[in-house]
Protein backbone atom coordinates (compact mmCIF):
# COMPACT_ATOMS: atom_id res chain seq x y z
CA UNK A 1 0.00 0.00 0.00
CA UNK A 2 2.01 3.00 -1.22
CA UNK A 3 0.33 6.33 -0.54
CA UNK A 4 3.46 8.15 -1.64
CA UNK A 5 3.53 7.08 -5.29
CA UNK A 6 3.74 10.32 -7.31
CA UNK A 7 1.28 8.85 -9.85
CA UNK A 8 -1.30 8.24 -7.14
CA UNK A 9 -0.90 11.70 -5.60
CA UNK A 10 -1.17 13.42 -8.98
CA UNK A 11 -4.27 11.36 -9.86
CA UNK A 12 -5.97 12.27 -6.58
CA UNK A 13 -5.54 16.00 -7.11
CA UNK A 14 -8.80 16.62 -8.99
CA UNK A 15 -10.68 14.41 -6.51
CA UNK A 16 -9.25 16.46 -3.61
CA UNK A 17 -10.08 19.76 -5.30
CA UNK A 18 -13.71 18.71 -5.57
CA UNK A 19 -13.84 17.36 -2.01
CA UNK A 20 -12.20 20.15 0.00
CA UNK A 21 -14.71 22.02 2.13
CA UNK A 22 -15.12 25.64 1.02
CA UNK A 23 -16.44 26.50 4.49
CA UNK A 24 -13.27 25.31 6.24
CA UNK A 25 -11.14 26.95 3.56
CA UNK A 26 -12.90 30.33 4.01
CA UNK A 27 -12.35 30.17 7.76
CA UNK A 28 -8.68 29.32 7.24
CA UNK A 29 -8.25 32.31 4.94
CA UNK A 30 -10.06 34.60 7.38
CA UNK A 31 -7.89 33.47 10.33
CA UNK A 32 -4.46 33.37 8.69
CA UNK A 33 -1.94 36.19 9.03
CA UNK A 34 -1.16 38.28 5.92
CA UNK A 35 2.26 36.65 5.35
CA UNK A 36 2.03 33.28 7.08
CA UNK A 37 4.94 31.00 7.89
CA UNK A 38 3.52 27.69 6.71
CA UNK A 39 4.77 24.15 7.34
CA UNK A 40 3.29 21.14 5.60
CA UNK A 41 3.56 17.63 7.05
CA UNK A 42 3.59 14.88 4.40
CA UNK A 43 3.49 17.42 1.55
CA UNK A 44 3.57 14.74 -1.16
CA UNK A 45 3.89 16.20 -4.65
CA UNK A 46 3.26 19.72 -3.34
CA UNK A 47 -0.28 20.21 -4.67
CA UNK A 48 -1.12 22.40 -1.66
CA UNK A 49 1.21 25.18 -2.88
CA UNK A 50 -0.69 26.06 -6.07
CA UNK A 51 -3.90 25.61 -4.12
CA UNK A 52 -2.87 28.07 -1.38
CA UNK A 53 -1.61 30.48 -4.01
CA UNK A 54 -4.90 30.29 -5.94
CA UNK A 55 -6.72 30.97 -2.66
CA UNK A 56 -4.78 34.24 -2.31
CA UNK A 57 -1.80 33.23 -0.15
CA UNK A 58 0.74 35.12 -2.23
CA UNK A 59 3.27 36.12 0.45
CA UNK A 60 5.07 34.41 3.31
CA UNK A 61 7.02 31.19 3.51
CA UNK A 62 6.17 27.54 3.00
CA UNK A 63 8.28 24.51 3.99
CA UNK A 64 6.96 21.11 2.95
CA UNK A 65 8.42 17.96 4.48
CA UNK A 66 7.95 14.42 3.22
CA UNK A 67 9.91 11.24 3.77
CA UNK A 68 9.71 10.19 0.11
CA UNK A 69 12.38 11.58 -2.21
CA UNK A 70 10.31 10.75 -5.33
CA UNK A 71 7.36 12.94 -4.35
CA UNK A 72 9.65 15.84 -3.43
CA UNK A 73 11.28 15.74 -6.84
CA UNK A 74 7.81 16.10 -8.37
CA UNK A 75 6.89 18.86 -5.91
CA UNK A 76 9.88 21.02 -6.94
CA UNK A 77 8.82 20.67 -10.59
CA UNK A 78 5.60 22.47 -9.72
CA UNK A 79 7.62 25.63 -10.36
CA UNK A 80 6.78 25.32 -14.07
CA UNK A 81 3.03 25.13 -13.39
CA UNK A 82 3.24 28.32 -11.32
CA UNK A 83 5.71 30.10 -13.58
CA UNK A 84 7.79 30.65 -10.46
CA UNK A 85 11.47 31.59 -9.96
CA UNK A 86 13.86 28.91 -8.69
CA UNK A 87 15.28 29.27 -5.17
CA UNK A 88 17.38 26.85 -3.15
CA UNK A 89 15.22 23.76 -2.47
CA UNK A 90 12.16 25.08 -4.26
CA UNK A 91 10.74 28.20 -5.89
CA UNK A 92 9.33 31.68 -5.28
CA UNK A 93 5.90 32.59 -6.63
CA UNK A 94 4.96 36.25 -6.08
CA UNK A 95 6.20 36.84 -2.50
CA UNK A 96 5.69 33.25 -1.35
CA UNK A 97 8.87 31.18 -0.92
CA UNK A 98 8.19 27.44 -1.17
CA UNK A 99 10.84 24.88 -0.17
CA UNK A 100 10.60 21.12 -0.01
CA UNK A 101 12.78 18.84 2.07
CA UNK A 102 13.07 15.23 3.03
CA UNK A 103 12.45 14.22 6.63
CA UNK A 104 10.08 12.87 9.22
CA UNK A 105 7.36 15.46 9.70
CA UNK A 106 6.92 14.38 13.33
CA UNK A 107 10.41 15.64 14.18
CA UNK A 108 11.53 17.91 11.31
CA UNK A 109 9.70 20.99 12.61
CA UNK A 110 11.50 21.17 15.98
CA UNK A 111 12.41 24.76 16.83
CA UNK A 112 9.98 26.33 14.34
CA UNK A 113 7.65 29.21 15.22
CA UNK A 114 5.12 28.78 12.43
CA UNK A 115 1.69 30.36 11.96
CA UNK A 116 0.08 27.44 10.13
CA UNK A 117 0.66 23.72 9.76
CA UNK A 118 -1.03 21.91 6.89
CA UNK A 119 -1.51 18.13 7.12
CA UNK A 120 -3.62 16.91 4.17
CA UNK A 121 -4.47 13.19 3.82
CA UNK A 122 -1.89 12.66 6.55
CA UNK A 123 -3.41 12.18 10.01
CA UNK A 124 -4.74 8.70 9.17
CA UNK A 125 -1.13 7.59 8.52
CA UNK A 126 0.57 8.61 11.78
CA UNK A 127 -0.22 8.49 15.51
CA UNK A 128 -2.63 11.40 16.09
CA UNK A 129 -1.43 12.40 19.56
CA UNK A 130 2.22 12.40 18.53
CA UNK A 131 1.41 14.46 15.42
CA UNK A 132 -0.49 17.13 17.37
CA UNK A 133 2.25 17.31 20.03
CA UNK A 134 4.80 17.91 17.26
CA UNK A 135 2.56 20.47 15.55
CA UNK A 136 1.90 22.40 18.77
CA UNK A 137 5.65 22.58 19.46
CA UNK A 138 6.29 23.91 15.95
CA UNK A 139 3.59 26.60 16.08
CA UNK A 140 3.43 30.00 17.75
CA UNK A 141 0.90 29.95 20.60
CA UNK A 142 -2.45 30.36 18.88
CA UNK A 143 -1.15 28.90 15.61
CA UNK A 144 -3.40 27.10 13.13
CA UNK A 145 -3.56 23.46 12.08
CA UNK A 146 -5.38 22.84 8.80
CA UNK A 147 -5.92 19.08 8.39
CA UNK A 148 -8.11 18.48 5.35
CA UNK A 149 -9.03 15.12 3.79
CA UNK A 150 -8.57 13.06 6.96
CA UNK A 151 -9.99 9.59 6.34
CA UNK A 152 -12.80 8.51 8.63
CA UNK A 153 -13.78 4.90 8.12
CA UNK A 154 -16.27 4.95 5.27
CA UNK A 155 -15.41 3.17 2.01
CA UNK A 156 -18.26 2.76 -0.44
CA UNK A 157 -18.19 1.22 -3.90
CA UNK A 158 -21.26 1.16 -6.13
CA UNK A 159 -23.15 -0.70 -7.62
CA UNK A 160 -23.84 -2.98 -4.65
CA UNK A 161 -21.93 -6.24 -4.39
CA UNK A 162 -22.89 -8.97 -1.84
CA UNK A 163 -19.36 -8.94 -0.34
CA UNK A 164 -19.21 -5.15 0.18
CA UNK A 165 -19.55 -5.25 3.96
CA UNK A 166 -17.00 -8.01 4.42
CA UNK A 167 -14.50 -6.31 2.11
CA UNK A 168 -14.94 -2.90 3.73
CA UNK A 169 -14.48 -4.40 7.22
CA UNK A 170 -11.37 -6.35 6.15
CA UNK A 171 -9.91 -3.27 4.44
CA UNK A 172 -10.38 -1.07 7.51
CA UNK A 173 -9.08 -3.82 9.84
CA UNK A 174 -5.96 -4.08 7.71
CA UNK A 175 -5.42 -0.30 7.93
CA UNK A 176 -5.85 -0.42 11.72
CA UNK A 177 -3.30 -3.23 11.93
CA UNK A 178 -0.54 -1.15 10.33
CA UNK A 179 1.74 0.80 12.69
CA UNK A 180 0.48 4.32 13.43
CA UNK A 181 -2.49 4.06 11.09
CA UNK A 182 -6.14 4.62 11.99
CA UNK A 183 -9.07 3.90 9.69
CA UNK A 184 -11.27 6.22 11.79
CA UNK A 185 -8.73 8.99 12.17
CA UNK A 186 -11.18 11.82 11.41
CA UNK A 187 -13.39 11.21 14.45
CA UNK A 188 -10.35 10.45 16.63
CA UNK A 189 -8.77 13.78 15.67
CA UNK A 190 -11.96 15.49 16.86
CA UNK A 191 -11.91 13.45 20.11
CA UNK A 192 -8.26 14.36 20.66
CA UNK A 193 -8.79 18.07 20.02
CA UNK A 194 -11.55 18.21 22.63
CA UNK A 195 -8.86 17.44 25.21
CA UNK A 196 -6.26 19.84 23.88
CA UNK A 197 -7.30 23.25 25.22
CA UNK A 198 -7.30 25.05 21.87
CA UNK A 199 -10.31 25.90 19.66
CA UNK A 200 -11.81 23.79 16.93
CA UNK A 201 -12.59 26.61 14.49
CA UNK A 202 -14.24 24.63 11.73
CA UNK A 203 -14.98 21.06 10.71
CA UNK A 204 -16.82 19.72 7.68
CA UNK A 205 -16.99 16.54 5.70
CA UNK A 206 -14.82 16.37 2.59
CA UNK A 207 -15.77 13.02 1.15
CA UNK A 208 -14.03 11.87 -1.98
CA UNK A 209 -16.71 11.11 -4.54
CA UNK A 210 -15.59 9.63 -7.83
CA UNK A 211 -18.22 8.73 -10.39
CA UNK A 212 -18.28 8.09 -14.09
CA UNK A 213 -19.87 10.56 -16.49
CA UNK A 214 -21.15 9.02 -19.71
CA UNK A 215 -18.99 5.96 -19.07
CA UNK A 216 -15.76 7.87 -18.48
CA UNK A 217 -13.92 9.52 -15.58
CA UNK A 218 -12.59 13.09 -15.41
CA UNK A 219 -8.86 13.93 -15.34
CA UNK A 220 -6.79 10.95 -14.10
CA UNK A 221 -9.59 9.59 -11.89
CA UNK A 222 -9.71 6.20 -13.61
CA UNK A 223 -6.06 5.74 -12.59
CA UNK A 224 -6.93 6.97 -9.10
CA UNK A 225 -9.69 4.35 -8.76
CA UNK A 226 -7.45 1.60 -10.12
CA UNK A 227 -4.89 2.48 -7.45
CA UNK A 228 -7.54 2.53 -4.70
CA UNK A 229 -8.61 -0.95 -5.83
CA UNK A 230 -4.93 -1.92 -5.62
CA UNK A 231 -4.82 -0.75 -1.98
CA UNK A 232 -7.96 -2.77 -1.22
CA UNK A 233 -6.51 -5.83 -3.01
CA UNK A 234 -3.30 -5.64 -0.93
CA UNK A 235 -5.40 -5.49 2.22
CA UNK A 236 -8.08 -8.11 1.58
CA UNK A 237 -6.42 -10.56 -0.84
CA UNK A 238 -6.80 -13.51 1.54
CA UNK A 239 -10.56 -13.03 2.12
CA UNK A 240 -12.70 -15.80 0.52
CA UNK A 241 -14.89 -13.25 -1.29
CA UNK A 242 -11.96 -11.13 -2.52
CA UNK A 243 -11.39 -12.63 -5.97
CA UNK A 244 -14.95 -12.21 -7.17
CA UNK A 245 -15.29 -8.78 -5.58
CA UNK A 246 -12.06 -7.48 -7.15
CA UNK A 247 -12.80 -8.95 -10.57
CA UNK A 248 -16.25 -7.37 -10.54
CA UNK A 249 -14.90 -3.97 -9.44
CA UNK A 250 -12.12 -4.01 -12.06
CA UNK A 251 -14.60 -4.89 -14.80
CA UNK A 252 -16.93 -2.11 -13.66
CA UNK A 253 -14.03 0.34 -13.68
CA UNK A 254 -13.05 -0.67 -17.21
CA UNK A 255 -16.67 -0.25 -18.33
CA UNK A 256 -16.98 3.15 -16.67
CA UNK A 257 -19.61 1.90 -14.23
CA UNK A 258 -17.82 2.05 -10.87
CA UNK A 259 -18.39 4.79 -8.27
CA UNK A 260 -16.43 5.30 -5.06
CA UNK A 261 -16.86 7.36 -1.90
CA UNK A 262 -14.40 7.73 0.99
CA UNK A 263 -15.65 9.53 4.07
CA UNK A 264 -13.28 12.23 5.31
CA UNK A 265 -13.16 15.40 7.41
CA UNK A 266 -11.53 18.78 6.95
CA UNK A 267 -10.49 20.24 10.30
CA UNK A 268 -9.24 23.71 11.28
CA UNK A 269 -7.87 24.04 14.82
CA UNK A 270 -6.25 26.90 16.74
CA UNK A 271 -3.71 25.87 19.39
CA UNK A 272 -4.04 27.37 22.89
CA UNK A 273 -3.33 31.09 23.15
CA UNK A 274 -1.48 32.55 26.13
C1 LIG B 1 -1.54 10.25 1.29
S1 LIG B 1 -0.08 11.14 1.00
C2 LIG B 1 -0.69 12.82 0.97
C3 LIG B 1 0.25 13.78 0.29
C4 LIG B 1 -0.27 15.20 0.17
N1 LIG B 1 -0.46 15.79 1.48
C5 LIG B 1 -1.56 15.20 -0.61
O1 LIG B 1 -2.62 15.35 -0.01
O2 LIG B 1 -1.49 15.05 -1.85
C6 LIG B 1 0.77 11.07 2.51
C7 LIG B 1 2.20 11.56 2.40
O3 LIG B 1 2.75 11.61 3.72
C8 LIG B 1 4.07 11.12 3.67
N2 LIG B 1 4.40 10.68 5.02
C9 LIG B 1 3.81 9.71 5.76
N3 LIG B 1 4.34 9.69 7.01
C10 LIG B 1 5.27 10.66 7.05
C11 LIG B 1 6.15 11.16 8.06
N4 LIG B 1 6.16 10.63 9.29
N5 LIG B 1 6.97 12.20 7.76
C12 LIG B 1 6.96 12.74 6.52
N6 LIG B 1 6.15 12.32 5.53
C13 LIG B 1 5.32 11.29 5.79
C14 LIG B 1 4.08 10.07 2.59
O4 LIG B 1 5.38 9.88 2.07
C15 LIG B 1 3.10 10.67 1.57
O5 LIG B 1 3.77 11.46 0.60
Sequence-ordered SSE layout with sheet pairings:
Layout: H1 6-11, H2 13-19, H3 22-31, E1 37-41, H4 48-54, E2 59-66, H5 69-76, H6 78-82, E3 85-87, E4 90-93, E5 95-102, E6 114-118, H7 128-138, E7 139-158, H8 164-176, H9 185-194, E8 199-205, E9 208-210, H10 221-236, H11 242-254, E10 259-270
Parallel strand pairs: 1-2, 1-6, 2-5, 6-7
Antiparallel strand pairs: 3-4, 4-5, 7-10, 8-10, 9-10
Helix pairs in contact: 10-11
Task: Work out the helicity level.
Answer: 25-40%
Instruction: Provide the CATH architecture.
Output: 3-Layer(aba) Sandwich
Distance between the termini: 42 Å
How many beta strands in the DSSP annotation? Answer: 10
Model regions low in confidence, pLDDT < 50 over at least 5 residues: none
The H-and-E topology, N to C, reads as: HHHEHEHHEEEEHEHHEEHHE
CATH topology: Rossmann fold
* Strand coverage percent: 25-35%
Amino acid sequence: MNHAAPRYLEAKRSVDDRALSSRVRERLLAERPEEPRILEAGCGTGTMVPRLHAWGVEAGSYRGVDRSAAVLERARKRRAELDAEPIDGGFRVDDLDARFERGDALSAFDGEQADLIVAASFLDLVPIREAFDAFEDALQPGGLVYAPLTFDGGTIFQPDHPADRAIEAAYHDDIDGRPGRDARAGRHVLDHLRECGGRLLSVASSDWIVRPRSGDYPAAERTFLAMILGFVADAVGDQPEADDWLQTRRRQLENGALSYVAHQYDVLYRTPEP
